[in-house]
Specification:
It is built from 9 helices and 6 strands; from the N terminus they run H-E-H-E-E-H-E-H-H-E-H-E-H-H-H. It is α/β, with parallel strands linked by helices. The protein is globular, with a radius of gyration of 16 Å.
Amino acid sequence: EAHAALAAGARFFIAPNISPAVAGVARETGTFYCPGAYTTNEILHAVDMGAHLVKVYPVGVAGGPDYIKVIRDPLPRVPMLAAGGTHLDNILPFYAAGCIACGIGGALADPALAATGRFAEIEARARAFVARAASFAAASPARA
């Protein structure tokens, strides 16, 4: 599947899990790799497999930004993306806790909105997320 994705034009791999096969393809082809991990052990395994960024997933059930704060202490140099429980009201706390990105999925593009043709609502949500993220970057020039 990784090779098929590349043949179809993919430029990165983002997954909910760590796959040795996908990690191998990413390393062989120089493709950006962002696997999902939940525990500190899984996060370190993802880094060992060549992850450029680790998707902490599902972060909402793990405790949200507070979970990130706890796992950042022993893993200060691991770049993390929060996913699975992120929304407009908690992306700033995730950034403040040390994440460099947030996966926003359904909070942005709820399938029900697309199914009913409410694309203007999806666009409005996207603009709100961009503005919220920009407000953090503006307030934190060292991280920008």
